[in-house]
């Protein structure tokens, strides 16, 4: 496939996806971003053209990948004439139908991973979920996705949103709890790195066990003595006591139903 791809967006996802596509033999014809700095950074990385002028977006590209925050998609796309080329968004939560007004050829390519610009990822191990508005476009996306990843599935918009919600719990919420843990430790000058072995072991356990079977701690049995003592320490700490209590109750209720 010799398709030329234009990227609308230059953030974390756009950086990793465009780089992986380029390494897989696809030609990235242009990068568009609202700021010159981000457009230039990714354009230079890929050794390709870039622009921050929406009126100068490449009209000759074959596929347009939309890697914008969800709230910006309509605003940006409404200013571009795609000439019914294939346009593909990469969002976990937006339905395929958000693209209906902009082209007769639409699709979704959603990589299930957390991305940071300066941390490398191996796309071959990342599950990719696609959706499209025709068999022809589905086949095009399957061909692209299978060059990127060893795990490619077709998933509709409703199920993809469920997947995205699940990923928010498993990734974003968990990472926030790391930040909370670091703040609690900081009060007594304890470095965060002491938690890294237990964080790693927790992550490794769920590679082998069902998450419910890997759960430990006072909340599973709702040990009120320990929980109450923890809540006293956390009282007045940025609502951390409320968070601790809410999660503890959720853990206990979940495991009580499983008995």
Short description:
The mean pLDDT is 95. 45% of the residues lie in helices and 14% in strands.
Helix and strand arrangement:
Blueprint: E1 4-8, H1 12-23, E2 27-32, H2 36-46, E3 49-51, E4 63-66, H3 73-77, E5 86-89, E6 106-111, E7 128-132, H4 135-148, E8 152-154, H5 157-186, H6 196-205, H7 211-214, H8 224-234, H9 240-258
Parallel strand pairs: 1-2, 1-4, 2-3, 4-5, 5-6, 7-8
Antiparallel strand pairs: 6-7
Helix pairs in contact: 8-9
Name the features.
45% helix; N-(1-d-carboxylethyl)-l-norvaline Dehydrogenase, domain 2; 9 helices; 259 residues; 14% strand; eight-stranded mixed β-sheet; Rossmann fold
Account of the 3D structure:
The structure is a single chain. The chain folds into two domains: 4-155, Rossmann fold (3-Layer(aba) Sandwich); 160-258, Orthogonal Bundle (N-(1-d-carboxylethyl)-l-norvaline Dehydrogenase, domain 2). Strands 3-2-1-4-5-6-7-8 form an eight-stranded mixed beta sheet, with helices on one face. The radius of gyration is 22 Å and the shape is elongated. α3 links the parallel β4 and β5 (86-89). With 259 residues, it is α/β, with parallel strands linked by helices. It has helices at 12-23, 36-46, 73-77, 135-148, 157-186, 196-205, 211-214, 224-234, 240-258; strands spanning 4-8, 27-32, 49-51, 63-66, 86-89, 106-111, 128-132, 152-154. The longest helix has 30 residues, at 157-186. The chain has nine helices and eight strands.
